[in-house]
Amino acid sequence: MSGKPRLTYCNGRGRMEPVRWLLAAAGVEFEEIFLETREQYEKLIKDGVLMFQQVPLVEIDGMKMVQTRAILSYIAGKYNLYGKDLKERALIDMYVEGITDLMQMILMFPFSPPEAKEKNLDSIKERATNRYFPVFEKVLKQHGQEFLVGNKFSWADVQLIEAILAVEEKIPAVLSEFPQLQVI
C-alpha cells in the first residue's frame, strides 16, 4: 500500500464525499478506486475487506476502514482537526451529527421519485433554514470566531461548508438570512 490513503467507492459523491473534503482540508493527497461493476464489490466482500459488506472503504496507515463516521473521526484526529481537548471534541461531534442529519436528506434526494422531488426539496429548504442553519448562525455569532469550535479550523467547519454548498446547489439563495454563514 502506498503512503497515500486509498479511497474505494462508486464514482459519485455519496458517503465518500465528506472523506474527500476532510482529506483535502488537511492537505492530504489520496488515490481513488471507483467500483464499476457488481463483481468488484462482491470480490471485496468475498475477500473479507468490507466488514459490514458496504462501502466506503478507506485504506490508511495499514488499516482498511469502513463506516464513514469512524473514517472521518480517524482522519480528523490524525490531522489535528478534532479539537484540542475532550470538550472541543464533544462540540465538534455534536455539530457534525447535526450536519449529518441534514446531509442525509440531501444524499437521499436524487433517489426521490419524480413526483416527490418538489416536496423533498421543500423539506430540505425548510429544515436547512428553520432547524440547522439557524443553529450554526447563532454559534458563530456567539462564539465571535470564524470557526465553530475554539479558534481553529476543525472537522465541524469542513462538514458545515460541504452542507452549505450542497444545499446551495439545490436552493441558491438559501443563505440570504444567514450573514455569518455567508462569510464561511
TrEMBL record:
Residues 3-83 form the GST N-terminal domain. GO terms for molecular function: glutathione transferase activity. GO terms for biological process: glutathione metabolic process. InterPro entries: Glutathione-S-Trfase_C-like, Glutathione-S-Trfase_C_sf, Glutathione_S-Trfase, Glutathione_S-Trfase_N, GST_alpha, GST_C, GST_superfamily, Thioredoxin-like_sf. It is an enzyme of class 2 (transferase). It catalyses: RX + glutathione = an S-substituted glutathione + a halide anion + H(+). Keywords: Transferase. SUPFAM superfamilies: GST C-terminal domain-like, Thioredoxin-like. It holds the Pfam family GST_N. The keyword Ribonucleoprotein does not apply. Its EC number is 2.5.1.18. Residues 85-184 form the GST C-terminal domain. Belongs to the GST superfamily. Alpha family. This is Glutathione S-transferase. It comes from Pelecanus crispus.
